[in-house]
Each structure stands twice: as structure tokens, then as C-alpha cells.
Amino acid sequence: MQRRFRLFALLLCIALAVCAVAQKRSITEKDIFQFNWIGDPQISPDGARVAFVKVTVNEKKDGYDTSIWSVPTNGSESPRRMTDGSRDSSPRWSPDGKWLVFVRAPEAPPAPGPAARPVSPQLYMLPMSGGESWKFTDLPRGAGSPVWSPDSRWITFTSDTSPEDLAKQNKKGKSEDKPAAEGQNKAAEAAPEHESDVRVITRSVYRSNGPGYLDFKHVQHIWIVAARIAALGCVFRIRGWWKRPENPLNQSGAARALAQS
Length: 261
Fold this sequence. Notes:
Blueprint: H1 2-23, E1 36-43, E2 49-57, E3 64-72, E4 80-81, E5 88-93, E6 99-104, E7 122-127, E8 134-135, E9 144-148, E10 154-159, H2 163-177, H3 184-190, E11 207-208, E12 212-213, E13 221-226, H4 227-231, E14 242-244, E15 247-249, H5 254-260
Antiparallel strand pairs: 1-2, 2-3, 3-4, 5-6, 6-7, 7-8, 9-10, 10-13, 11-12, 14-15
Helix pairs in contact: 2-3
């Protein structure tokens, strides 16, 4: 009797093991749609929280969404979302812990055409005391890589915006400010200039995976903005840019006002 019972128990264990193995499956390419990634962790100045970027697959399953989250370092709370954009990245705490600067790329699709560029990302400010974030840069070719000064008074960032880009932006802004009663000629002047899609290749390395063709006419420079101006919610439109070490900042317009503040 005991022998039969042991045999029955052994067969039952084997059957349960076979069922458990049958329920498991190998990973497939569609499982990536359910993956979540985290990256770029940034510890707050007081060490109480960590801001990080959460990456998920978007609803159309043709790209990725990024958002900024935070979690206490002691694990007392679950992570909570800090920004409501779908392309937010590069969170940076101010040294005094009162602000969080981050980069947001607009969700608007790029204009059609072979020479079209993606919509440029800009810098946003988020108060740690509560409230929504706001944009404080408006450069034609975007802004990125924000860094705070140790005294929390200045924010430096990079941009490959050129003087020609700023001139076009200022010209467009002046055209939009003029009344419509001035006629169709003014509307024609405000129309965007045609940019040729012809590319002349003169270098062996001319394209990279992801960004595409390299633009050697637009080199990244270092820009600076006063943190108190950004904290007021003012959109920062710089007319000056880094040019030469002996005269690093060609100050004019908003750039001069910020330098004197």
C-alpha cells in the first residue's frame, strides 16, 4: 500500500512539473513593448530624493516615451511622476534644491520634406515648491545639456544655433508683429525661405546612426541664462552667442540685459 502511495505521489509531482514547464514560454520580440527602463539618476542636493528618466514604448509602438520621475532615497514612497510631457529628459537639480531644470522635445511632428529637421527641444523649469513647469528658452535649433552654477544663479547649456538662425528668427518675429493691413507683400516676406535639400559630401564621416546627416555649419556652443530670469517664466530669446575666447559673448538685446542683471 505504501509503495503504491509513493508511486502515485511521484507521478503527481512529475505531472505538476510538466504543467509548470508547459506554462512558461520563451521571450519574443513583442515583449519589448512591455519593458520599462530607467536612466540618468540625479540625487537631490539634500540626498532625500532621486530624479530619473523613465523610458517606455509609446502607444503606436513605433518609438519611445520619456518622462521624469522621482523617488525617496529611503524607499518610503513609491516613485511618482514629476513632468507630464512624453519626451522629457536630462533632469538637473539646482544646488539649493528649489528648482529642477529639464529638456523637453515637443510632440509636434517635423515638417514634411527631405530637408526637414525634428522640432527642437527646449529647456523647462519645474519648481520644487509645487506647480507646473514652463519653457524658458526659444532657440531655433533647440537647447540641451543644462548645468547649474554652484550658487544656483546661472544655467549653462549647449546649442548649435548660429547667428544666421537668430537673424531669421528675429526677422520672422518682426514680420508677425506687423499688422495684416499692410498687404500681401508683408505676408510674402514672412513666408519661410526655401532650403535646398542638396548635400555636397566632402568628408569621409558625414552621417551617424540616429541623428542622420552631420551639419558642419552648425557647431555647438555654450550659452548662459540667469536662473532668476528663467524662474520668472520669461522665454529667453538670445541674440548673442559664443564667438571667440577674447570676446566670448557678443552681447545684444536679451543677452546684454541678462549679463547686467
